[in-house]
DNA sequence: AAACTAATTAGCATTATTGCTAAATAGAAG
DNA sequence: CTTCTATTTAGCAATAATGCTAATTAGTTT
């Protein structure tokens, strides 16, 4: 559980999670979407996987990653608990879903 | 805004935020509550302050820190946005407020 | 089996984080 | 103005995180 916060600390990993909200993606397709080498992406995947935020599934020659909603939900809940914020308040403060964050 | 996630990554800093939910505390009182040196605590305070999660107020000889709810709320909202989780779902997944986390 | 593709692991360098002790600052009190 | 208290800043060492290229693994295809 503690690893979750660490996993969320890197902007690239947060962007990966955002991409996976729309559905599973292969490691290769994800890697193409970011300006770092494939091995570097692979390491970020491992970090997210160890935190339980994503899950890997081997499909033929390809590895498909998908968001693990149950762990992600737990993480969001834990964060709100740390801050003792009522869910409705946080929802109101959330930026529009399409917002881009500079890294 | 990006610093917020980094600030939340360290377990000690999350515990500091939890303590501040009950109201403002002085740097010294906070420092006594954790098994690290005062200069180390001071650095953690600086990290939280740079992230905007806490605010400092000098009261006589003492510095009082308090949770900055508006930034904290924004952070919680941003996290939920990354994960695209509906607030109610996250609320249900939140652990009991008194839960202790091992560092 | 040889070659090709997708992805990971190994090994290395660079930078960031953490935590310590010692020293500095700032204000309060004598 | 000296001293005391609260807190921070400086400087250092150890550890962790990031990102690269080169090499490896595993599965497909010819």
Description:
The structure is a homodimer of 103-residue chains. The first copy, chain A, is an alpha+beta fold and 103 residues long. Helices cover 56% and strands 14% of the residues of chain A. The first copy, chain A, contains 6 helices and 3 strands; from the N terminus they run ααβααββαα. Chain A has helices spanning 2-8, 11-20, 27-32, 38-50, 69-83, 87-93; strands spanning 25-26, 54-59, 62-67. In chain A, strands 1-3-2 form a 3-stranded antiparallel beta sheet. In chain A, strand 2 and strand 3 form a beta hairpin. In chain A, helix 1 runs antiparallel to helix 4 (38-50). The longest helix of chain A is centred in the last third of the chain and has 15 residues, at 69-83. Mean pLDDT of chain A is 82; it is low at 95-103. The A-B interface holds A 1-2, 5-6, 8-9, 11, 14, 17-18, 21, 67, 69-70, 72-85, 87-95, 97, 99, 101-103 and B 1-2, 5-6, 8-9, 11, 14, 17-18, 21, 67, 69-70, 72-85, 87-95, 97, 99, 101-103. Chain A binds a DNA duplex (30 and 30 nucleotides) through residues 6, 9-10, 26-28, 31, 36-47, 58, 60-63.
Question: In a few lines, what is going on in this structure?
Answer:
The structure is a homodimer of 103-residue chains. By secondary structure, chain A is α+β, with helices and mostly antiparallel strands.
Number of strands of chain A: 3
Q: How would a crystallographer describe the biggest sheet of chain A? A: 3 strands, antiparallel
| Mean pLDDT score of chain A | 82
Strand content of chain A: 5-15%
Q: Specify Rg of chain A, calculated over alpha carbons.
A: 14 Å
Helix content of chain A: 55-70%
* Helix segment tally of chain A: 6
**What kind of assembly state do the chains in view correspond to?**
homodimer
* N→C terminal distance of chain A: 25 Å
Q: Catalogue the unreliable spans of chain A.
A: 95-103
What class do helices, strands and sheet pairing of chain A give? alpha+beta
User: Which chains make the largest contact?
Assistant: A-B, 42 and 42 residues
* Sheet with most strands: strand arrangement of chain A: 1-3-2
Order of helices and strands of chain A: HHEHHEEHH
Global outline of chain A? globular
């Amino acid at each position: 559980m503690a690893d979750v916060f660490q996993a969320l600390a890197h902007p690239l990993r947060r962007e990966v999670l955002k991409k996976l909200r729309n559905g599973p993606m292969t490691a290769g397709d994800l890697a193409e979407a970011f300006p770092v080498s494939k091995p570097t992406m692979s390491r970020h995947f491992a970090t997210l996987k160890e935190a339980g935020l994503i899950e890997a599934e081997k499909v033929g020659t390809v590895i498909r990653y998908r968001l693990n909603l149950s762990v992600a939900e737990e993480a969001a809940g834990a964060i709100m608990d740390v801050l003792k914020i009522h869910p409705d308040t946080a929802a109101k403060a959330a930026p529009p879903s399409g917002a881009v964050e500079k890294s």
